[in-house]
Amino acid sequence: MLQRRKSGRKMKRRVYQNEDEYIGFASLPEQVHRKAVKKGFSFTLMVVGETGLGKSTLINSLFLTDLYKDRELLNVEEKVDKTVEISKKPLDIEEKGVRLRLTVVDTPGYNDALNAEECWKTVENYIDQQFGQYFNDESGVNRKNIDDNRVHCCLYFISPYGHGLKQVDVKFMKQLHTKVNIVPVIAKADTLTHAEIIRLKERVLDEIDEHGIKIYEFPDCDSDEDEEFKKQDRDLKNAVPFAVIGSNTVLEVNGKRIRGRLYPWGIVEVDNPHHCDFTKLRQMLISTHMQDLKDITQDVHYENYRAQHIANEINRQSQKERSKLKRDSCTSFDGVIDTDRILEQKDEEIRRMQEMLSQMQQQLKMNGRANGTKVK
Description:
By secondary structure, this protein is α/β, with parallel strands linked by helices. 46% of the residues lie in helices and 15% in strands. The chain contains 10 helices and 9 strands. The protein has helices spanning 28-39, 55-63, 76-80, 120-139, 167-176, 194-210, 227-238, 278-288, 290-328, 333-370, and strands spanning 41-48, 87-95, 98-106, 153-158, 182-186, 242-243, 250-253, 256-263, 266-269. The chain has a 6-stranded mixed β-sheet with strand order 2-3-1-4-5-6, with helices on both faces. Helix 5 links the parallel strand 4 and strand 5 (182-186). The chain is globular.
């Protein structure tokens, strides 16, 4: 296993107290900040769930825009044979001089067809394609401006009408949890009472644990963080799975304009933390954990794909060489012995390469734990 070599010499640390002694590297964070702001940021968010769970409304509520104004609704007959599609919608957002290139990947048709046993395959193929494209770009000659279209987060919408996860929910998350950060979301929380939401959350978490599904885990707080930040972190962790409500309707209540839904018995406010977890989801997704989602995509999911891809390429090349050796080998006994010896050497080489790849993956997991990221 790869390990950091420990130096026998102890590094001397010098702290400059006098301002005249400053070298100037304390401004490095400011340089990095300016460069990052100038370049801008990118983030790819995937939304997966059945039709009618409010995915489009929630996305519009999160980013205060209308990404689905040209959407066409299908009738029941068209949904019967509907297959899962991939729909990408780019959006450029600027806030206080910081530019974000947001890409929302929607999956219309998910679980709509009569036979939806393998509707997760289209999503898995898309995620693998983005990993493959990034791998090819990274391995190319010009690596200066690589477009990162990898999926950094998947909001998986759970129906509020059942009593937990459906079989298709379990199947999807078990197939994709090693490839993308899955954040479970209970849709249309305004159809449930507060007690029903608590019971459904507990049931969903129990079933996730029972089936060995690995959803996105929040990194642990540093010990030197203030109490307010630690409380904020605890509240976000306790809110999973997020019970959300989406609405683009602006209502006026007591002279105050709010986004919400009007019912005969009252108003449900989207931004009221006592009514739903919308503000917590938005805070986690945009304000506090967007970079962590990108880091895990790079350091864990992509590295797993890369290691597996390299191993597959080695095996494929080995099979080609085996076939060529068998074709080119002579029919004499000595020729057969030489061919077998070469094949054994190739097998040993492949075994060593696979051990190296396994060690790299173990080292990545150790680094992830050292950085406060839980990697399973």
